[in-house]
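Q: May I have one protein plus its fold?
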Amino acid sequence: MFDTNVTIIGNVLTPPEWRRTQQSNQLVANFRIASTARRYDRENRCWVDGNSLRIRVSAWRRLAEGVIASISVGDPVVAYGRVYTRDWDDEEGNHRVAYEMEAHSIGHDLARGQSRFTRTRQTGPTTADDAEAEALIGDPAAEPDGDRLTEPVVGEMEPDFLRVVAGLTETPEEAGEPQEQEEEEKEPETEETPAEPEPVSTTEVRRTRRTRREPVAA
């Protein structure tokens, strides 16, 4: 939780030495890196070396295999890992403090040279930890809940996607035109002529007309 992860850019000081642990038979490679700061001297107009940091780097398992096959003395490298101090006593009984790094990743500094990468084919797990990691990677991934489609709500109207897309794609000029102009662009509808009334015969008119009665003289 409170680990100090640091990136160090420097050069390899010692050739990598590898060994295997007695109990778990894990492969580990150790070497030293020197990182020297450089500053520009304005008086002499040249770059000069500043403070230097020397640290012991340890790489485990697959990373150790890559270090042994790829790293040599003088190579410019970039190392990233957990930095800590190790206290110990020398042969004379003096207390010593050393800075060490448990590397998570190591590679060549391509700003100062070129390198060719060769992918290694894994024939089998080197340790029990690697076997557990491969088992976890091989398991089927769980389906995230956020990607599932929810059930439709009863009574909810479906959105009109065509109107939404049309509103996003129309230009401001088209959006500012009045609605009357759109109505003018429409094709005029043909007016229907009213049907002519059918002619009524005079006989029918006479039949329906009431006769007028004249008054009779007394």
Observations:
- The chain has a mean pLDDT of 71.
- The chain has six helices and six strands.
- The two ends are 136 Å apart (CA to CA).
